[in-house]
Amino acid sequence: MTLPKPQKTKPDLHSDMISGVVYASSAFLIWGISPIYWKAMRAVPAFEIILHRIVWSFILLLPLIIMMRRWQEFINALKDTRTLLILFSTALIVGGNWLLYIWAINSGYLLQASLGYYINPLVNVVLGVVFLKERLRRLQILAVALATVGVIYLTVYFGEFPWIALTLAVTFGFYGLIRKVAPVGSLVGLTVETLLLSFPALVFLFYLDSQGQGSIFRVSLKLDLLLMGCAPLTAIPLLFFTLGARRLYLSTLGLLQYIAPSCMFILAVFLFREPFSSAQVATFILIWIALAIYSTDSMRYYRGNK
Length: 306
Known about the structure:
This protein is globular. Helix 5 packs across helix 7 (163-179). The chain starts with 9 loop residues before the first helix and ends with a helix. By secondary structure, it is mostly helical. The chain has 13 helices and no strands. The relative contact order is 0.19. It has one domain (18-133, 163-263).
């Protein structure tokens, strides 16, 4: 006789929700305040930082895969040619996204980077329409239209297209879109991606060292530890995000994601004192209104379809 599986009680569900919020909020908070960490290495070229981030992340993620019993999933991904090709393309995209993000921070464009991650959910909506043939609801159309007006206004006012913000938003959007096709979890996927990028990254790091241009083991112990610390800064928030996503409704997770760009915005304006003009104020207000409309519509739609 097979006994039925015990159902979770309401206290269990409530506890899961609380822990989910803590995990997800911690992930977004770490991502949001990470510019302080990247700024501490601004003397190192962004490209070299990315090379170290890739290599040290793989070194940390591999034992993490074993500890979390994902080794077989990892091996299966390596054996599947289609999965490898998908993850190779996403590796290139996320590597480019990381490079531009760190360059933007250390070049004084954190405000524009935060704008990119604010508009990313709206870019995802557009990508869904173009590539997945999804239909936009009326409030979604309004949200996308407001965000578009904000970007156009900023472009006309400054006479310069906010390419950093849009490139970050679009590359991260495509990363998520393509990763949906790969039958692997986020942790295993990132491990494979860093593995694929580690070979060229190691070659280039050895080349820099042979030319006497590498930063690690040449400047200071503090810088060495910062470069190695790129690994936990990459893996820990991803792990927290995965643990949180399992316990939360999609609508809740969607609202919590704004913690990261909000932290970036605060750091850019109040800590790093980046210029913040009236045109940027107007653009951000339009984006925030668009996100409020989008989030409200998403929650209503999700609750109506539960």
